[in-house]
Design a protein that fits this description.
homodimer, mainly alpha, three-stranded antiparallel sheet, 6 helices, DNA-binding
Chain lengths: 157, 157
DNA sequence: CACATAAGCTTATGCGCATAAGCAATTCTC
DNA sequence: GAGAATTGCTTATGCGCATAAGCTTATGTG
């Protein structure tokens, strides 16, 4: 691969990231949400109550980010946090009634965003895209040694 | 498109954004760069001197972001800023010798990142990806009325 | 030419996400 | 069962990017 191709790919990813995020932000702003929060709500809606470590894994963000996201969503009444009975370190996060309603709203705009994103593309191409993106994501994702926590493998910085 | 498909797409874009950016950050950190700065250097390397408004457009970020990025790259000696003779509001940004050397380094890691990103994908798929991403980006990009500056079309907030 | 509008840039401020560091609770190992 | 290592969460802090607001210079309009 020559530099022009490499640059086209990296730049395309960067631009799509910025634009898609900005568009998502614009769409969920009327719901009182900032980007990132919709992902937490949707994850809870998909899977039910989760502890923060699971949310961190599912959302692809670090634990401190989950702490802050959860705190804000709790403050606005969309989620509830309670200590886990089986593990007193852990915090169970679940949707409130308000959060469930909000999640439904988010799902509507989420559908609209996806359709807007692939508008004009051949259906076959659109169907392949999530898989392609996931494959690329896996390629650049930090390596996990196994069931354990991710470790910094390089000692040299 | 049902919600599951829409969600798969949006989530895939979000995750790729996070991971690709994180990987890029890890790769350019040894060069003393933070993510975003490499884009500015590469743009100058591609096109030669630009004023900040052009960089804002090319990089897909807002003018205040360019101001800060440029200030930091100037402080580290990689770019030079000088007033444009034809328009005293504008600031011409160009690479220094140090910046040109650094851009070459960036191009190397940029190639490596792209190859890592599409590793394992069929060559045909990899070749299509930049175009697909660009099409999606165009779909979610803010509408421009024409040659003029983008305007906020909604008065209602 | 005077004035209003637009364009280029900057400062101030806020949010998301990151890493570093630290505490509390759990689990592993002997 | 005691100490060590791991896990879950939090606080502190920093960077990128955004919007809001303001300054300076250019440009359009009478």
């Amino acid at each position: 691969m020559d530099f022009a191709q490499a640059d086209a790919l990296n730049q395309a990813i960067r631009l799509l990231s910025l634009r898609h995020r900005a568009r998502a932000a614009a769409l969920i702003a009327p719901l009182g949400l900032h980007p990132g929060q919709e992902a937490l709500l949707l994850e809870l809606d998909r899977t039910g109550p989760r502890i923060q470590a699971q949310l961190s894994e599912a959302l692809g963000v670090e634990p401190p980010s989950v702490t802050l996201m959860a705190r804000k969503l709790e403050a606005s009444g969309h989620i509830r946090r309670s200590p886990a009975p089986s593990d007193r370190r852990a915090s169970i996060v679940e949707l409130t009634d308000s959060g469930r309603e909000l999640a439904e709203r988010v799902k509507e705009v989420w559908r609209g965003l996806a359709e807007e994103t692939v508008a004009g593309l051949p259906a076959a191409a659109a169907a392949e895209i999530p898989g392609l993106l996931a494959a690329m994501t896996a390629n650049v994702a930090p390596r996990r040694t196994g069931p354990g926590r991710a470790r910094a493998a390089d000692s040299g910085g």
